Structures
1.
Amino acid sequence: MSTSLEHVGNMNAGNMNALDNMDALRQSVRGRIGIKDDVEEDGLIYEMLHASRDIKDLFVSSFGPRGSSKIIISPTDDVYLTSDGKTIIEQIDVLHPVVTSLKELAISMDKVCGDGTKTAVIIAASLIENAAKLVDIGLHPTTIIKGYQLALNKAYDILNYESIRISSERDLHSVIENASLGKGIEPHQARIIADIVLETLSKIRDIQGDAHIDLNDYVKVIKKVGSPSIESISGMVLDERPARSDMPSLLENASVLMINGNVKFESKIINSQRNLRIDDLADPRLIFHGKERNLKSMSQKIIDSGANLVFCEGDVDESVEGSLAKHGILLFQKLKLRDMEMVSKATGASILSIRDDIMPYDLGFADEAKVEKRNDEHFLFLSVSDQLISTIMIWEPFRYGLEKIEEAVDDAVNNAAFILKNPLAVRGGGDVEFVLSQMLRQYSSTIEGKEQLAVIEYANALEEIPRTLARNVGLNEVDAITKMLNSYNKGIDCRIDITREVFPNNPPVYDSFSIKQMAVIAATEAVSNMLRIDKIVLKKS
């Protein structure tokens, strides 16, 4: 009897512990949400305001070529030192609905454009901040949404009118260099990156002509710690070592075979149900001989294919490695899927399973495959004439500098890719946002009703971009905006320059039209969706 009572007591204690753990988890989640009770009516806009201000404060100080970096420590104690908008907002461990919406905005911008995340989030947060001012003076959210939509439609027309067709290498260089500078690297580094991306683009154009291509599919970026340098290499470079040291390090006119999955003995080949009974000592020997025959068959299949350069996405058995090495075949294994896809594009090889029939037309071709060792790391340099793949190799002595330059190269490539798709640009350095804000203020005078006030606040939100750039380069923002206004009234284009001056935009600095347009549209739509919310309800436990 006492044992039964003790058992019941232990069960109750266990249930109490489970309830305590659930309650602790619930409180932790509620803390991350940042909302204690249901929020509705007037309190809702202020809840949005406080959350968006916190996010905006994180982003504005990191914006532009002179923006500051953030140190972010994740719950798993990973440390990030970055000024990249997507990285900053992804690492924020907050479940607040407004923060989540701004996160989705940043992630979608990065996914679609690869750039423009901070621009979109700063505009969105400013629109929420300005909407709160309008609610304070009695405007209903639906009126604000209508005014914002009118402003967006007009901004869309103005952006198209202000766009410039990229017609020279100098203009394209300006777009790419300006995108690189946005990651806070030095101007000379941005120029080098722009030169390399243009060189890569020129090689691709020489082969492909004016046909449409997605640059991201044909440019590989490798980053390594070492003596500082950035170089563009025609062809594919893999930071991989051969499967064995006794394999050849140089192949000319290589026949390329690509295999998906493992090249090793799988038990399901012989015994798929895993129910084999071992009744005597002969059975293990049968299994061993079956495995040996299976591996020899795989090796012979690769050898008979005529390939002397093999790429495998999975693992390769040691006995297969040895057989290939004896026949002078160079093997790389455990490759990333993206690398496999790019090698396939470069060489024309089909990606097969080891169980597939290997036909001559499945093999690819490379003019040269060379294994080199640099800074104690192995690299494969794969050259194919008249092919589009290029590799940008980045070497930096410090990991933080390496990350910044990689982010700058990514933005440069993404902007170049957008210019290839749509060769339009707008003036950079805060110029186009300032012009948009001035024209929208003029446009607001043509609108009757309270929507006029929303259009004015939309213009103010766009002006936050040049104001932020001015603050971050060390200018007084009021003086900077005044100088820009004086130039605007005289019909002179001007920008916030990294030399801490408001300069006429000559020689011009450009941004990608498509990315700028996407940032304005995405920010407006995100804020409109948030303003349509009339209540935040916490699910009761």
2.
Amino acid sequence: MTFRQAVLFISTLAAAGGSQVAQAADRPNVLWITSEDHGPHLGCYGDEYAITPNLDAFAERGCRYEFCWSNFPVCAPARTTLISGVYAQSLGGEHMRSQVPVPRGFRLYPQHLRAAGYYCSNNVKEDYNVVPEGKVWDDSSRRAHWRNRADGQPFFAVFNYTISHESQIRNEIDDADRIHDPAAAPVPAYHPDTPEVRKDWAQYYDRLTMMDRQVGERLQQLEDDGLADDTIVFFYADHGSGMPRSKRWLYDSGLHVPLIVHIPERWKHLASADYQAGGTSSRLVSFVDFAPTLLSLCGAAIPEAYQGEAFLGAAATPPREYVFGARSRMDERIDMSRCVSDGRFVYIRNYLPHRPQGQYLQYMFQTPTTRVWKQMFDAGETTAAQSRFWRPKECEELYDLQNDPDEVENLAYVAEHREKRDELRDALVRQITEIRDVGFIPEGPRLRWAETVGGSPYDFARQEDEIYSPRASHFVAVEATDPTSPERDYFAMAYRYFPREDLALYWACNGVLSRGQERFHQFHDQLRSVLDGELSSKASPTTRIVAAETLGKYGDSDDLDASLELLGEFADIQQHGLFTAQAALIAIDELDDRAAPLRDRVAALPLKSDEVPGRMGTYVPRLIEKVLADLDAMTE
């Protein structure tokens, strides 16, 4: 029996005894203090512009982790990974936002802690992309608190602070309440240096100071209750800065978060060798590691299905070599990228390179920085580093955080960095294969296919490779969309490697779309057959929409007419559902003035459907609003 198996066996016996066993074992309490939408922009992380005295003092007692990633640069999939101990792209819940069932027989970490006798409270945000089975928390509300537990019962408590959220950056505050001088604000190389941008960055830091006060009050409350010596405390943020090109993007600025852990003297035997009280740890950690670490600290069994590695407690593992990130649909816009880092270099693979980083997101454009940045780009007033965000993506990106912390110099195609690029690329492919990343399956089809096995996307992806192969999917997606790949017959290649015909057609069509006019005529007939439903009766609406966008953008008038007819039909959310309508409206938006004949038809589309979950109900209305605004502007 291995050491970890022994720990799991003992923990399982303890869990069977319920709360009385938990009390007898004299386990630590654990408090997680989380804040939203910010990176390690704290005084204790060396940021001289930041004013964060409470967290700075806390860091003097705890261990500051120098490289913690959130795995996702936006809240819902990041929190899905936290609550499950499984990468959200493995669960099929990597989109912002989505709603998928948990795998059969799967339990989230609070359910394991509750079974082990812990009182588990969450105040208050959940925002998970998975639908759990059974009760998760003892209390998840604005009243949730460790004070509501039974006498002597160990607790696990989460308190989440929203004052630093993206939305708070753009709220007006009185000049008298301003804390940071905009003139001294640090402006990264990818942002233009304007008064609007400086004001936003200053207000971002203002909100961090306000959050710091709230954290100080919570830590004082723990002291006042006489629990500080019995409680292990984590402080972390849910992903990177809420400023544009940080939140939602796979740069270090979108994934890197502060993590400070304090282990009281009583529980110092639960620290790992790299934990330094009052110091730092260079160990790479990420959100997928938090659930197994928590269970390890509390003496509870770590499920085999959990994909993270415990970095503290009895079941702590050796440090990991890499951390991983993922980006998929962000609100109303479809995208797909994956990344990996060794702590110094960040490698990003973009699977839909024809979509710019700066796709229009209605929520993001409420921030003044976003608007002025786009206006300056349109006017030709941005630098090369500032312009890249608004142009089609490069298929591969590689950045050296030591020499280029703003990540504006792409080294992926520089000969002297080829070895590092290939190392990280290989690590990413291994991870995609091991966790069975379902991101290569479009959102609508993946949910339908999961229903065929009576389970979740996670369950579907764990059938034989003849049903779904993540490694083959990655290969075909790369070969189809990367201009440095050999010239191929995308359709023949996709059929050869993809076990499912619709998935083969989807990536073949994206390959032609990403190459543009260059390869269009070679594959015109196949595209037209996909659009007309002749090449395969199995082609999903999502796949036919990609063919329609390509034909509408590069074809003749007959192709355009056929494309607009199909897109107009599929844009109806009541008739075809959210994911089909969303994809169709994006394609219409991408066609610009060629979509003008659809203007009145789009204006008459229904805005909602009773079958769409409320958390995703704004996406189609936002797209319709954007399409109409653009088409109307073209006719003025």
3.
Amino acid sequence: MKEILDIRFNGKLNSDISLLFNKISHEKRADFNEFVTSISKPNIKNLDWWVQGPASRNTYSSPLFHYYCVLFLLNHLIKEKRFSFEVIIVNSLSFKVIVEELLSNSNIKNCKVYSKYSFKDFIKKIIKKHFLSLYLFFRKCFQFVVVRVIGSINNLNKPLVLIDTFLMPGYIDNDRWYGSLWDNLSKEQKLETFFVPTVVLTPLKNIFSLHRKAHLSSRNYIFKENYLTLKDIVFAFGHKKRIRKIKIQKISLLGYEFSNLIIEELSNHSDIDTVIDSILIYRFIGRFRQAGKKVRLAIDWFEGQGLDKAWNMGFNNYFPDTKTIGYRASEYFPFYLSTYPIQVEREAHVIPDIMALQGKGTVFTVKEFLPNLDTIVIPSLKCQYVWEFSENKLSQSKYVVLITLPISIRYTIFVIDRLLNVCNEISIKSDTIKYLIKPHPAQSLSKIKSNLPELPDYISLTEEKSFAKLLYSTNILITEASSTCLEAIACGIPVIMMENEEGLTYDPIPSRISEHLYRKVRSQDDLMQALKDFIYSTPEYLKQQQLDSAIVREDYFEPYSDDGIDRFLDIVKK
């Protein structure tokens, strides 16, 4: 059987190659930032450049970091004489050319490189090319009409605090992004504070009801469409033509020309919906200024994506005297590069003036690539429950293992299959243990069920949306790349984190955290052993867990205070 190396973006690497790939990728993070800096400098003032994948450094949606690191992986395998593959699979024609050139220069003749697309991928490409833009244009126009029909708030004549957020069904008054912020504002603060939402994960049929509910909400919302014009929507969709005019300078990596790979990504428009939303955010800020409105403070839900870059560039250009604060609500993963600001982004004014962090332990990591970044520590608005947490397990008849699922259906199925295999093999499965599965908020329960076999009685899916409520009766958390890891650890709940055996692991657990509180597992045997370790923990071990979790809570979850809210809202009391 031919040995195959799958180096597609979101492909499936062999487990041992995946470990090496993670190591190389971590070492190349800073170098990749310099690479992005180099290609961004000529386009530093160009909005269309900053909302696109290569400049975003969003490693979830842009494949550039993946290809960058894969080239070093291949080079390493060849130099260390560990290259034994007869087939390489890629999903980029430009990268295929680079790989073939590398193999030729290395005198490897018995390996073929294939650009592999499934029939499903082919159909998706055709639909995206011919129909997606048309659908998105109709959707934006429909949303524009809906908002205009519902009406707007007119009393906006004083300086405001504008807060970048998102809107989706089920999360209007229940704030998934800013937690308890609105409830902790004074009456005076509420009068000046307005959320500016971007609609996500909402079917077209629910657009009207979503906006209607938000309009009737006790919260203050400003919908961009009340200030945008149809001309702005047309301008946003003109991005496809404008992006073709962007000049990408010749740039090589290990002696191989990479500029065609960047051009290919720009042409693919893989995340065009986000690109359009980003440009509309920028145009809204301009229209808001044109309408004579004043903004005292602009707060950005910060992950460093195109939306964030457009928000911050917009306020720098149209409200240059307005302070901008980025709310970085979690300790993000080292491979989620867009969440770590770099110098060229500061020069381009696409990052906030100040970064607001939910805990002092995050200050060091966010400054990894920009040491002089200004930061403030504010209350952990999403997770104040960790300070009020009290275990509610004494009356439980069952030992509960909670599994929080990722957004990916593929990896969701993998996690549950592995759990089933472990439960079928280990002796700790009994009537006293219950496994409770919580779907990702972006996934429907019905969709997950349709992709799973019938589950045994001791494994069940929950419709409860509140992670905090579930945690009160949880003994162990199993998850993968999720901010819920730190929350559970801060509450004294041990965590089993499943690493990605087929690619990069988006590791949410900082290295400084005690290993009493977690296990990182790659194999089925690892998972089995981790479950045994925690289920059969000694009283002494459990006591140490509680002591260590108090340190995590102190470092990564700032408790609520009026002064903390004032820092966030840039209020200086005399």
